Amino acid sequence: MNYEIKQYDKFKFVEEGEGEPLLLLHGLFGALSNFKDLVEHFRHQYKVIVPLLPLFDLDIFHTSVGGMEKYVQKFVEARGYDGIHLLGNSLGGHVGLIHVLKHPERIKSLILTGSSGLFENGMGDSYPKRGDYEYIRKKTELTFYDPAMATKELVDEVFEITSNRMKVIKIIALAKSAIRHNLGEEISQIKQPTLLIWGNNDTITPPFVAKEFNKLIPNSELHFIDQCGHAPMMEVPGEFNVILDAFLSKLKQPAATIA
């Protein structure tokens, strides 16, 4: 299903449904398509929002995880969202973590899946090779447990990005910024209920990363999904949505009834 991309001031985003805001942040090679099953499932109960992060639109000095967080903060303020359930995948999780640490007042809960912020494998030493379609296909396949998830359409999207010299420079800037901006010493300050949904076969942010997040974030719960890689909401959307649904439903109950 195609959703209308709305524009408000300088912000482009999808907004579907009514209810508590569920704000979704995509990763470095992410797009709206990453969240299509999630949007479709949750728009009947929540206001599901997906801002298009300006990965390639900011000047090079602001092309960083901090720059992305400032964009998200301005977007949240401009739209007046409050009581937000903030979900981030990969780099989007990292941006979400920084946002919760800097501006906790509007965030009701945090959901991380394959998030950077502590450790990530990235694309390896040769990242990224321009103009080598086969290389890009293999790297895209590594995102998933099932290589067939790396459809031609998805590989074409990544290939187009990595064929543009300025976009490659900005990808490298963002990747380096993510590595530099390690949050290990800060994330124990997060007070919001936090859900960690991780692929047991994630090679980019492996399972030990999820366990470390779980250990460091006080009010957190961790769920692993078998035969699943770095993008659970794409690879196993049914199981992902069940786990997220249960977590969000628990938060809706009056405090006295939560077990």
From TrEMBL:
GO cellular component, one term: membrane
Any one GO molecular-function label of the UniProt entry: monoacylglycerol lipase activity
Keywords for the protein's UniProt record, in alphabetical order: Hydrolase
InterPro entries, alphabetized: AB_hydrolase_1, AB_hydrolase_fold, AB_hydrolase_sf
Superkingdom of the organism of origin: Bacteria
GO BP terms, alphabetized: acylglycerol catabolic process
Chain ranges of the AB hydrolase-1 domain: 21-235
Protein's UniProt keywords contain Signal: no
UniProt-listed Gene3D superfamilies: alpha/beta hydrolase (3.40.50.1820)
Parts of the chain that traverse the membrane: none
Pfam families named in the record: Abhydrolase_1
Keyword Cytoplasm attributed: no
PANTHER family: MONOACYLGLYCEROL LIPASE (PTHR43798), MONOACYLGLYCEROL LIPASE ABHD6 (PTHR43798:SF5)
Protein name per the record: Alpha/beta hydrolase
